[in-house]
Structure formats: structure tokens, C-alpha cells
Amino acid sequence: MRVVAYSIKSFEKEPLAIANNKKHEITLISNSLSLETAAYAEGKEAVIVFNEEDNVSALVINKLADLGVKFIATRSTDTTHIDTEAAGLRSLKIANVPLASLSGLTEKELPMALAAETIINLDNWQQNRCLGDACVCSKACDQAGSKVHIKGQPHQH
Questions:
Q1: What is the DSSP string of 54-89?
Q2: What is the fold, at CATH topology level, of the domain defined by 2-134?
């Protein structure tokens, strides 16, 4: 999967590279996502964002969708920075890092855990699998009506 990751800090580069293990073509940039920097997503299938540092408003989501982006993964548990309604209208799928996956970790372990969960989300999207607890699409698996929400099983939105 071709991906651009926004707002990358130096301490995040190594964990993302290790977690990715050369599976996805990820471009790491330090710029935050905005209407102006959305152009970096041209030709990409997914973007990786982080909390309020990145502008994932309806305007930006529309620009990303126009560029061909299909997936938005946040490397955080929070999704309030993402206009999920706008993403749903443009059929963009959204994933976060489930809070349960970070339970009991030390501060030193967090960057690797966030990176690993983000890559798992990309892997599952690439394989057309349900993201389970990481799925924050506007149409949850259990609301789609076509399939039951079972982690690891394909679903339709």
C-alpha cells in the first residue's frame, strides 16, 4: 500500500520502519496535514495522521478523496480531530489505535506499540479485513448489515 505519514517526529521513524518491515511504501514527512500539504498524498492510498497536529477537517478530507486516498489511519487512540462524517460521505475508511492495545505499556514502549498497531491497520485494509476495535468508520461493521463484526474477517461498508 502506498502511504504518506504526516507529523512524524524523529523518535517515530525507527518504530514505523521496524513495524512496517518493508511491507508498505510509506513516505514519512514532518509537515502536519493541512489543505496545503494534502498534495503530498497524491498517488497514495492511505494517510497516517496524529491528533490535533493534523487538520483532518471536511475540506482536507475532500481534497484527500479527490487525490485518491481511501484510508485514514491515526496513530493515536483519539479520533476527535477527524471529521468522520465527511470521511463517511466520501467513503474513506478510518482507523485508530485501540486503547486496549496500549494498556500496561511504559512511555518508552508507546512509540513502537503505536507504530505496530498502525501498520496492522494498513495490513488489514490491504487484505480487505475488518479492523475490529480499530475501525472507526462512520458505518461500523455491526451496522453494515451484511456481515457480523468479527475481528479479522472481511466486511463491507
A1: S-B-HHHHHHHHHTT--EEEESSS--TTB-HHHHHH
A2: Rossmann fold (3.40.50)
Residue type, 28: L
**Is residue 153 over pLDDT 50?**
no
The predicted-structure confidence for 93-150, as pLDDT tens digits, reads as follows 999 999 999 999 999 999 999 999 999 999 999 998 877 777 776 554 544 433 333 3
> Cell 503505536 maps to which residue?
114
Question: Locate cell 487512540: which residue?
Answer: 77
Type of residue numbered 82:
I
Residue whose C-alpha is closest to residue 8's, from 42, 68, 43, 53: 53
Domain spans in the chain, listed from the N-terminal domain onward = 2-134
Predicted TM-score (pTM) of the model is 0.85
Answer whether 5's CB lies under 8 Å from 29's CB.
yes
Q: Which of 57, 55, 58, 5 is nearest to 30 (CA)?
A: 5
